[in-house]
Amino acid sequence: MNLLALQRALWVAYLAAEVLLVGVICYRRLLRRYQFFVSYIALDAIGGVVLIQLDFGSAAYAYGFRIYQIAMLVLRLGAAAELYERILEHFLGIGRFRFYLGGVLTVLAALIAIATFRPDVNAQLGFPQTGVILLQRFETTALCLILLLTRFTLLKFLNIQPPIRSNVLNHWSILTLYFGISALASAATVLVGGGRAILPVNATMLAADLTCFLIWIRTIQRSGETIPDLPDPSAEDAAYHQEVKNAVLDEIEWLVEKSRE
After folding, report:
1. In b/e form, how buried is each residue of 30-68, taking b as 16+ CB within 10 angstroms?
2. Does one domain contain both 171 and 258?
3. For 28-160, where are the alpha helices, taking DSSP H only?
4. Which of 163, 179, 213, 258 could form a disulfide with 228 if both were Cys (CB 3.0 to 4.6 A apart)?
5. Can you tell me the distance from the alpha carbon of 16 to that of 34, in angstroms, rounded to the nearest whole number?
6. In 3D, which of 50, 81, 89 has the Cα closest to residue 67?
7. Residue 114: CB partners within 8 Å, gap ≥ 6?
8. Which range of residues forms the domain containing residue 246?
9. Which among 144, 153, 200 has a CA at the least distance from the CA of 176?
10. Pick from 41, 172, 153, 33: which is nearest to 103 by CA?
11. Which residues of the chain have pLDDT under 70?
12. Are residues 94 and 128 in the same domain?
């Protein structure tokens, strides 16, 4: 199959899926919950439609691509921060600790992302779009790692298991995957250079991103904003918590009696 024709077909489907995703989120009245994410997807669709009108090898395309990517960098960061806040809404009492946790995870993810910039691509920095591609690769790698580390820290390391809205859980997983795809694609773009060698990279990235959009459209529902009920505790857990409660009550009664004496 002609890879150029396949890429064009995937690109059209990609843009259509982005527009549909924005429409679905607005229709299901979830815009206020995911404002930065919707803005990010909408700008990506608009930017894609505008840039596709320009000659890929022209100076106008290079200039437009840089402006578009810089705006996307800001909204991508906003979408990740928005999801981080949506996640931590479920961890009552976390308070200011979320800022310390976010800071530590950001520094750790940034260091790992910097370490992934191998092999050395300094010789290719003269290409018009390479600078913003490298910046995109760094940001998407770091954001992917931050979301992964957040999941590991809260759910595995600290072993906190609160009931979490299904929209947030699904969005957490898909956005992590989406950022990972973007990071890998931008790394491959720099490594293979330009020309027709980039067609397999673009086709693979578009197909993977299209899959993410379809999953978002399918899973993000109005009902997904309801916090699920806690499962009923087992008999052993109920007995243990009752023993703790009785012990605390007995200690309080003893202290009250001592104070009366």
Report:
1. beebbebbbbbbbbbbebeeeeeeeeeeeeebeebbbeb
2. no
3. 35-51, 59-88, 97-115, 130-151
4. 163
5. 20
6. 50
7. 138
8. 231-261
9. 144
10. 153
11. 1, 56, 117-130, 193-196, 229-253, 255-256, 258-261
12. yes
Within 8 A by CB and 6+ apart from 34, the residues are 25, 79, 82, 86, 171
Tokens of 47: 């930017």
- Residue-wise pLDDT tens digits, 146-200: 999 999 988 888 777 788 999 999 999 999 999 999 988 888 877 776 666 778 8
| 204, two tokens | 């693979």
Angstrom distance (rounded) from CA 61 to CA 67:
10
CA 183 to chain centre: 12
Residue 131 token pair: 């600078």
Structurally, the chain folds into a number of domains equal to 2
